[in-house]
Amino acid sequence: MKRILIMLFAFVGLASSRTAIALQCPAFPEQITKNVQGEVDATVGRIGPVSGGELKTRAQSATQDLLGRLPEGGRIYLEQMMFASYCSVLKDDRSLSDTEKGQKLLDYSQEVRGVLKANPEQQHSTEKPEKSELLKVLANSVKGVHYQNKIDGYVQVNFEARGKWLAIPEDISDPNIPKAAKGYISASGAPTFLSNDNTPCPRVPLGALIVMGKNHQCKAYGEKGFFELGPGEAVDFLMNDVKSLYNDNKGFVEVQLSISKK
Hints:
By secondary structure, the chain is an alpha+beta fold.
């Protein structure tokens, strides 16, 4: 089936601004294998050149299909992968206006998230973790919250964030900032407003919860996910925002950690 190509606004801004000056799509999470990425790309690619109700129906079907087939590690990052895949598959269509492109991506993302929220048990491990911990991450903290693996060995850390925080006030009038990025948002960030090179994690949604490792490595992001840590290795949890603009952020999210030894 022919793939529909659509351009997603991915915002790479000026060093002191959140305003968009370039377009690109987000990358797949680095934890995902090529086989899993191939499964997602193939399934999303079959959605085809549709709009409205048919797009929503096919997005729901694709999400259910992938939930049933992917291994646990892939399911945890399914929303991020499906967003990246649809953006990449559809990014070059010149027959659609920017408004039409944005609407298609928004409709698609809402259906994917709806299916995932209706099936939470399919995204989480049934194994009992060896350790649990709750972190409170403030939106206005540049350094974030530090976490170190104190277990003697490698561990997998599953995380899930609850709550909302604010990076961009609702009364900001800049036309380049989409409405979905303004006001209080979840730890997923604003999916149609990707951050610029002056944020800790470029090409990750602005306002998303991010997990930063050594050497400024962005290990994970979003409302939920997982990453691995070696003995003594540490990470920082914080909001993804322009480095000079954290002072006007508000709110916090609570991050539940489930740590299992590898």
